[in-house]
Amino acid sequence: MIRKFQIxxxxxxxxxxxxxxxxxxxxxxxxxxxxxxxxxVLSPAAVPGNFTNAEFARHLEQLKKKLPSSGFTIVIQSPFxxxxxxxxxxxxxxSEKTVKWAVDKxxxxxxxxxxxxxxxxxxxxxxxxxxxxxxxxxxxxxGTPYGYYSSTHKALIMNISTGGGTLVHEIVHPFIEANFxxxxxxxxxxxxSLYEQSGEVDSHIHGYPNWRLPGLQAAIRAGKVPSFQxxxxxxxxxxxxxxxxxxxxxxxxxxxxxxxxxxxxxxYREFHTxxxxxxxxxxxxxxxxxxxxxxxxxxxWEKYVLGLSQ
Length: 310
Hints:
By secondary structure, the protein is an alpha+beta fold. It is built from twelve helices and ten strands. β5, α2 and β6 form a beta-alpha-beta unit.
């Protein structure tokens, strides 16, 4: 059974302290016409995972002090707190249909641990809100028009008008951080980017071909795609600063190939189990693929990728 989603998350904001099963009390209008912060009451059932009601309450008290305006909505979706500047209904919908969905599906197949701390997900309604509020809140200009995860700020910071694919991608990173801190960048970004366009197949999260495909196909035809041994050995500088586009797309479509052949979850578990003796994952990849001739595999993989379409 296949359910394919275009995950299109749109962020809202009006302020929500806590929610009883996310039943939000309607916002009220002040005498000056401004929207007063909407309120919600958090019940124990709404806070699964490692964090208590009291921990979320303390987090929200600090969070409300730094909200850029009264036009933000806050929804708790453990282990995250979702903050947005569109309607309260939209923020709640995105927190359940995208954030909760992604967390549940990723934990179903890959992760046993939540992030160690409560993390914020900021969903800004458009490019102006994203750029202006990121500078106000974090003192930095975004390096991408879509969004990013900052472990320093303990936040996922999104321009949600570009869609929810980047949000699902970025949700992967704090879970990798919590479950596989020694994970090399190729797999961290390969798995994250796989789910930039995702849905469900047989109730499991599933990545689909996306915008990274044409660039990778062009690089294959030009003979510019490195060996898998080289890709897996890249450190953060090599992965992010040297031929970044090809590195991302090669890692994504290696993960896609593994997924399509029923090997991705097996590879993750094998790699995670043997990370000390196989820090790059290259030996685990050979084992799961059942071959030591990675040059021949790369030729098969390139032919496979050239046959894909968006």
